[in-house]
Amino acid sequence: MNTLTSPAQTNRQTILVCFLAALAGLLFGLDMGVIAGALPFIATEFDLSSHSQEIVVSVMMFGAALGALGSGPMSASLGRRKSLLLGALLFVIGSVGCAVAHNLEILVISRFILGLAVGVASFTAPLYLSEIAPERIRGSMISLYQLMITIGILAAFLSDTILSDGGHWRWMLGIITFPAIVLFVGVLTLPESPRWLAMKDKHELAAKVLKLLRNSDREAREELDQIRESVKIKQRGLQLFRHNPHFRRSTYLGVLLQFMQQFTGMTVIMYYAPKIFEIAGFTTTREQMWGTVIAGLTNVLATFIAIGLVDRWGRKPILKLGFSVMAICMGILGYMFFIGINGSMAQYTAVTVLLIFIVGFAMSAGPLIWVLCSEIQPLAGRDFGVTCSTMANWIANMIIGATFLTLIDTIGSPNTFWLYAVLNAVCIILTLVFVPETKNISLEHIERNLMRGAPLRLIGRQDDSRQHVEKPAL
Ligand code: BGC
Question: Which first-to-last residue range defines the signal peptide (predicted)?
Answer without folding.
Answer: none
